[in-house]
Write a structure and sequence with these properties.
three-stranded antiparallel beta sheet, about 20% strand
Length: about 400
């Protein structure tokens, strides 16, 4: 009996040793992080490459150095979601695929999340096809990782099967092809269209209204011959003089001037006794109504554009707040402060002249050394998205 108890005791101890061993291996596999440190770089060569691709389009190439620069820009600060903190990302180019290593902290545990995979462009979206996902040395089921990405409900990421697709708006230009070859990223991009300013759009709308007004004036001038009486000719001249005031005015003012001229035409129609002259005046009124309708349509578009403009400028102003906190130099903070103020003023008034602000920012920037310029660029790139960068270029020429 005692011998049986001893055997059972030895079995229990053996099982416990095996369980402890399994747990130790499991813990080792999870906690394994090989002492990964985030690569740091102060250069911003990649921003120059991106600016060139935006202007010209065509082929582009990114080296490991450029990838390190991007990682430093986009993950300049730790990102915390709940109990998990992402401390940075290292992306290595390995022949024809990526090896992504991301040190994370979960409460007091320091872990290493990693993934290996390939990139391409499918249906206009940059797509990551993962070969594997790991925590330490422990492989994670792809379905589990994909389900967690779906739960994030991030509009910038779209999941199809095991493919992770990135929204095109995340990139500063439209990428048409992408591959990893010979330890480099090779791609093709479309030339970015010229960004038409809000003021230019308004000028174009104003020019269309002016063209319609000119047609109306020509119609009136050709009708002058039919107006035999001096009083009638004087009335037409009065209306023409009213329409002449529309040049150089805002869309709203043009619309009001056309409305005033219609009232004058109505007065002339009411006083006309000759049927032929009355018919001619009614034709003029139809042309005037057409001009008024165009002005009303352009006014509606202007209102929509103005709301879009204000929202875009306010968004830039808010994003610049993050850049202000990140930049360390007093000159860098001064530039960003001016830019924030300019965005606020432009959002409030479309007529604000920002040329003085632009000159101040460029002047301060020219006095920075290379380190200061890189710090300023890094702060903007890390906090301001590509659409907002386009607005800043439009306003400040940077």
């Amino acid at each position: 009996m005692s011998k049986t108890k001893g055997v059972n005791k030895n079995k229990l101890i053996g099982v416990l040793i095996i369980l402890v061993g399994i747990l130790a291996v499991f813990a080792y596999m999870i906690l394994y992080n090989t002492g990964v440190t985030i690569k740091k770089t102060t250069t911003t060569e990649v921003l120059g490459k991106f600016a060139n691709v935006q202007k010209k389009g065509g082929e582009f190439e990114l080296t490991q150095k450029n990838i390190d620069e991007l990682s430093n820009l986009y993950f300049a600060k730790a990102i915390t979601k709940g109990n998990i903190t992402l401390n940075g990302v290292n992306v290595e180019i390995l022949n024809d695929e990526f090896l992504i290593k991301a040190p994370i902290s979960y409460k007091n545990l320091h872990l290493l999340f990693s993934s290996k995979g390939k990139v391409s462009v499918l249906n206009g979206k940059v797509t990551y096809d993962a070969e594997n996902f790991k925590i330490g040395k422990l492989k994670l089921p792809k379905k589990f990782v994909v389900s967690q990405i779906i739960k994030l409900n991030n509009k910038s990421l779209d999941v199809e099967g095991n493919l992770i697709k990135i929204d095109p708006s995340m990139f500063p230009f439209k990428i048409t092809s992408l591959e990893i070859k010979d330890n480099k990223i090779l791609g093709m991009a479309l030339k970015q269209g010229v960004l038409v300013s809000f003021d230019d759009l308004n000028k174009m709308s104003g020019a269309e209204i002016d063209k319609q007004i000119d047609i109306l004036k020509q119609k009136m001038q050709s009708s002058t011959v039919l107006m035999g009486g001096e009083a009638e000719k004087a009335k037409l001249k009065e209306i023409l003089d009213t329409l002449d005031k529309a040049k150089g005015k805002s869309i709203q003012e043009k619309k009001q001037i056309i409305s005033d001229s219609i009232n004058q035409i109505d007065g002339a129609i009411g006083k006309a006794t000759d049927s032929d002259k009355k018919k001619e005046l009614e034709k003029i009124r139809v042309a005037a109504e057409k001009a008024k309708q165009l002005a009303a349509e352009k006014e509606k578009i202007w209102s929509q554009q103005n709301n879009t403009k204000s929202a875009a400028l306010t968004k830039v102003q808010n994003e610049l707040g993050g850049a202000y906190s990140q930049v360390g130099s007093s000159k860098g903070k001064q530039m960003i402060s001016i830019m924030q103020s300019t965005m606020s003023k432009l959002a409030s008034s479309s007529s604000y002249n920002s040329s003085g602000d632009q000159a101040s920012v460029i002047s301060i920037y020219s006095t920075l050394d290379s380190q200061g310029k890189n710090e300023f660029k890094n702060a903007l790139a890390a906090n301001v998205d590509s659409a907002s960068v386009s607005v800043l270029r439009q306003v400040f020429g940077i």
